[in-house]
């Protein structure tokens, strides 16, 4: 048997954008059918509604059932944990998140994304404690969910849909410049916990840390010239194709999500990258 080759997952960050209707989504397509349409053209979607608020259990079930069996969702962790609580005193909020229903995605649940705010500087002790708290299997996530806060009564679901020992992967995107100053220590910390460092393309606004610290690669493409706006030309797509292939050839899965949504570039750039990767 040959060595394992990684699998590529290319998609978009979120899928509910009114300005995409009539551009990416066909005119007349029901909003309820937009995820199904996106899933037929892309390999993955980053759920970002979970960043803004806890989602209802029924929503996770509906999303799971709207996509093909081999489709994978990445899920963005709540900003209440990262931006409001700033990673401190978060036992209850973390339990609430895992009790909110995301485990219903089962085998379609991919990495969890934790985006840190631009005002959160590198603090090794704080970050170490946070990374250590994250569950590494579906069973461990369900065990955490049992400690949810009382306000979750009537809106919790954490029954396992995947094998209990199925791995639960995590990736962290940072935005404070101090992470570049401590890049070696940060990469070492992530590697020790088996957590991926997100390679973020932000038109130079935030740090771009391209380090392999886990068994998979994770990229977020916010625009290489204008944040959230500019599309990727052939040269830009060449660079990200090379980034993906480097991970795949090393046996690592690779995730890439386009977040340049303002001018409806994200879905078309994602499809262009998928086409490039499919040529080999």
Order of strands across the main sheet = 6-5-4-3-2-1-9-8-7
Domain count: the total is 1
Give the helix level as a range of percent: 25-40%
The unreliable regions are none
Q: Kindly report how far apart the N and C termini lie.
A: 20 Å
Q: Which fold name fills CATH's third level, the topology?
A: TIM Barrel
Mean pLDDT rating: 96
* CATH homologous superfamily assignment: Protein of unknown function UPF0759
The dominant shape is globular
Our estimate of the beta-strand percent is: 15-25%
Task: Provide the gyration radius in Å.
Answer: 18 Å
Q: Which CATH-level-2 architecture?
A: Alpha-Beta Barrel
Secondary-structure element series: EHEHHEHHEHHEHHEEEHEH
Largest sheet: 9 strands, parallel
Strand elements, count: 9
Q: Helix count, per DSSP? A: 11
Estimated structural class: alpha/beta
**Top CATH class:** Alpha Beta
Brief synopsis:
The protein is 34% helix and 15% strand.
Describe this structure as you would to a colleague.
This protein is an alpha/beta fold. The chain has one domain: Protein of unknown function UPF0759 (TIM Barrel, Alpha-Beta Barrel). It is 34% helix and 15% strand. It contains eleven helices and nine strands. It has a nine-stranded parallel sheet. β1, α1 and β2 form a beta-alpha-beta unit. The mean pLDDT is 96.
